[in-house]
Amino acid sequence: SEMPNDSNPDTPRIVVLGNEGSGVRKSIKEIADQFICIEKSSTGPETTTDLDSLNVAIAAAIIMFKAKSSI
Questions:
Q1: Please, what's the b/e burial string for 13-38 (b: 16 or more CB within 10 A of its CB; e: otherwise)?
Q2: pLDDT at 31
């Protein structure tokens, strides 16, 4: 999914990261405005077929980097 297209850096945002087993609580999903997925690359020498998930800290870093890049 694309990052929110909002050029105002003062717009409040909350990033909620779910755990690997059960994800984000249903009550949080029901009030969320948007969901973001981090897609895994399927080509290139760095591709690892054993990669099932990302560490939550790595996922947070990727999302924050993309958010900063899109503002």
A1: eeeeeeeeeeeeeeeeeeeeeeeeee
A2: 92
Greatest distance between any 2 Cα atoms in the chain: 40
Helix (H, G, I), strand (E, B) or coil at 19: strand
Encode pLDDT of 9-37 as tens digits: 677 888 898 887 788 899 999 999 888 87
- The rounded distance, in Å, linking the Cα atoms of 66 and 71 is 9
Question: In terms of Cα–Cα distance, which of 27, 14, 22 is closest to 60?
Answer: 14
Instruction: Please name which of 10, 15, 11, 7 lies closest in space to residue 63, comparing C-alpha atoms.
Output: 15
Q: How far apart are CA 65 and CA 40, in angstroms?
A: 16
